[in-house]
């Protein structure tokens, strides 16, 4: 590691959106940055891109090994790769639900487990997991996606307690609506039911409008950089105005008020 580099960072899902913005922010801050994507993407702007499918353990181990071959260490892991799913909970098969967990939850555990031996031997490391404000609250017609983010929250907090004695910290970043291609590429249910068609269509419009009016990915990248470099990191970092509002609401308002507001925001009858 040269004197100009403050560390070596590995970011999953770095070809676009939050991942790419984060990769650029970290590179500009002085990190040597390696990004991953499922499909091969050319390296550019000082960011070395590697192919990696987080659902494939061999692919994950190969990508981590390549980072270590080139850089000799990993100081920061940003688990960003993820997929969405919009639809009624009963409209998805168990197989579809498992596929979502395989990316959003087990993908994080695979990459984390692959880098931990290196971080433990270094007695130093930081893991930033990209969660969501939906890891704090329910969201109708996003039940399975929300379940993955709640899982990431619990996993991250628990893992942080396990790793502190090795000089490693695990931190959460929780964005709200963000202007990325996430909504356009979101998965639809594989067993749609006509009874949900009308409300599901309304939720698609709600999400599209939210994304269009959302934060720039650079807003999230700034919070990731803060989470990565803070000497004494907080457990979670809300990213954006909406995320801060929801975090406050969940922490301090009575459950009945939160429930009422959520139904109103999502245009559901009281």
TrEMBL record:
<dbReference type="InterPro" id="IPR036291">
    <property type="entry name" value="NAD(P)-bd_dom_sf"/>
</dbReference>
<keyword id="KW-0560">Oxidoreductase</keyword>
<dbReference type="InterPro" id="IPR002347">
    <property type="entry name" value="SDR_fam"/>
</dbReference>
<dbReference type="InterPro" id="IPR057326">
    <property type="entry name" value="KR_dom"/>
</dbReference>
<dbReference type="Pfam" id="PF00106">
    <property type="entry name" value="adh_short"/>
</dbReference>
<dbReference type="GO" id="GO:0016491">
    <property type="term" value="F:oxidoreductase activity"/>
</dbReference>
<dbReference type="InterPro" id="IPR051911">
    <property type="entry name" value="SDR_oxidoreductase"/>
</dbReference>
<feature type="domain" description="Ketoreductase">
    <location>
        <begin position="7"/>
        <end position="198"/>
    </location>
</feature>
<comment type="similarity">
    <text>Belongs to the short-chain dehydrogenases/reductases (SDR) family.</text>
</comment>
<protein>
    <submittedName>
        <fullName>Short-subunit dehydrogenase</fullName>
    </submittedName>
</protein>
